[in-house]
Design goal:
The protein is an alpha/beta fold. 42% of the residues lie in helices and 18% in strands. The protein has one domain: NAD(P)-binding Rossmann-like Domain (Rossmann fold). The protein has seven helices and seven strands, in the order E-H-E-E-H-E-H-E-H-H-E-H-H-E. A seven-stranded parallel beta sheet has the order 3-2-1-4-5-6-7, with helices on both faces. The radius of gyration is 17 Å and the shape is globular.
């Protein structure tokens, strides 16, 4: 009987998380699609209502996935984004963004590592160009949280390697999808024009990067923060 491979994707009701979950499910993985609201059902998709700020719930999901499948991949995709000026950034939003984006990723990494120690596996975190450059028109907690995700990735890469668990991150620039539409079309056109490629990343490209880092055939990329930004970091 063929082994059933399992994957957990948090933030699976969103654009990127949903795209990652659908891609994995299409390849036959049993995907635990976790979010605050139930992700859409589908073949090989197991919707799970999960608050990533609740550590016990993350560990419970990891134990369930490891009991029902061979848990091979955990993607920490849950995240929130607040459009605001730095001057208007409020403390309540700071705490909420840090809790979901950074603490939630910590909970996912720690739960995944605990469940994967016996069999090995891959953890992929969703970082951001904002975690490398900062940003305008976005709450500073978003950039701070994503910079934290990048650093956290390296901690779990070092710790997980002894158990055969590799941990990496992707750091996309703006992606064509619902999140960037908050900026308005005029701003989006400026972002496209200011990029060396004159375009934003597509969701499919980010999914391919996540799949590469999460593939068991990736045996030596560990602790990497993969830049997917069209080369904008090289422009100054």
């Amino acid at each position: 009987m063929a082994e059933i491979l399992g994957a957990v994707v948090t933030g699976a009701a969103g654009d990127l998380g949903g795209a990652v979950a659908a891609s994995l499910a299409k390849d036959g993985h049993t995907v635990y699609a976790a979010d605050l609201v139930a992700a859409p059902e589908g073949k090989n998709i197991v919707p799970v209502v999960l608050d990533v700020t609740d550590q016990a719930s993350c560990f419970a999901l990891a134990r369930r996935a490891a009991a029902e499948t061979r848990l091979a991949l955990w993607v920490n995709g849950a995240g929130i984004f607040v459009k605001t000026s730095v001057a208007d950034a409020d403390e309540a939003s700071w705490h909420k963004i840090i809790a979901v984006n950074l603490t939630g990723t910590f909970h996912g990494c720690s739960a995944a590592l605990a469940a994967m120690k016996a069999t090995g596996g891959r953890i992929v975190n969703i970082g951001s160009l904002s975690g490398q450059l900062g940003g305008r028109g976005v709450h500073p907690a978003y950039s701070a949280s994503k910079a934290g995700v990048h650093a956290l990735t390296k901690n779990y890469a070092l710790e997980g390697a002894k158990w055969g668990v590799l941990c990496n991150a992707v750091a996309p620039g703006p992606i064509e999808g619902n999140m960037v539409r908050n900026f308005g079309e005029a701003t989006l056109e400026k972002l496209r024009a200011g990029n060396p490629t004159r375009a934003l990343a597509t969701m499919a490209e980010i999914v391919r990067a996540v799949r590469h880092l999460g593939d068991p055939r990736n045996t030596h990329t560990n602790g990497a923060v993969l830049q997917i930004n069209g080369g904008i970091l090289m422009t100054g």
